[in-house]
Amino acid sequence: MAEAEGESLESWLNKATNPSNRQEDWEYIIGFCDQINKELEGPQIAVRLLAHKIQSPQEWEAVQALTVLEACMKNCGRRLHNEVGKFRFLNELIKVVSPKYFGDRVSEKVKTKVIELLFSWTLALPEEAKIKDAYHMLKRQGIVQSDPPIPMDRTLIPSPPPRPKNP
Amino acid sequence: LGEESEERDDHLLPM
To answer: What are phi and psi of A78, to 5 degrees?
Structure first.
């Protein structure tokens, strides 16, 4: 597949989360990550787009979006961690798992993955206090019964932050 | 500045 110059974040994400994909398409997933790193407002735009896809009623679209999110967290560094670590984004993940919002309509597969991601970030990103706040609130509410087992490949090792576009 | 006010407005969802 030829690389498209100037593809937007939205375009990359639509391809990476297309419900017609037979399997996860890493070319588009990494393309999305790379595009985030290229754009000054990449992380801010990306989390908004991801939140929307993660809330998709189509399970496969949501699952792929979570895979993209996970890849972004590994590849886009601190700028993205900061955006994910805001309640503005975390609240959208909370809505997915909470019965007060969308939790009753969302599949267990999606909810489980959200909780695994949140928990893994509480360990890997201790400086992002809001992630811990959000996760512990889910526990207090009984939405998370116990800490999930984290697969070895989920140990998030943040990559070094990309060169900042502005000082 | 802009970031500080963003910080102030960033609240956990009421449950």
So the answer is: -60, -40
**What pLDDT, on a 0 to 100 scale, did the predictor assign at position A164?**
62
Q: Return the pLDDT at A46.
A: 98
Compute and round to an integer the Cα radius of gyration of chain A: 15
How many CB atoms within 10 Å of residue A160? 7
Query: Are residues A98 and B15, on separate chains, in Cβ contact within 8 Å?
Result: yes
Report which DSSP code applies to A85: T
Return residues 86-105 of A near B (CB < 8 Å).
86-88, 90-91, 94-95, 98, 100-101
Residues in chain A, pLDDT under 50: 1, 158-160
Q: State how far the alpha carbon of A86 is from the alpha carbons of A12, A15, A83, in Å.
A: 23, 26, 6
Nearest to B15 among A88, A90, A141 (CB): A141
Instruction: Summarize pLDDT for A153-165 with one digit per residue, the tens.
Output: 655 554 445 556 6
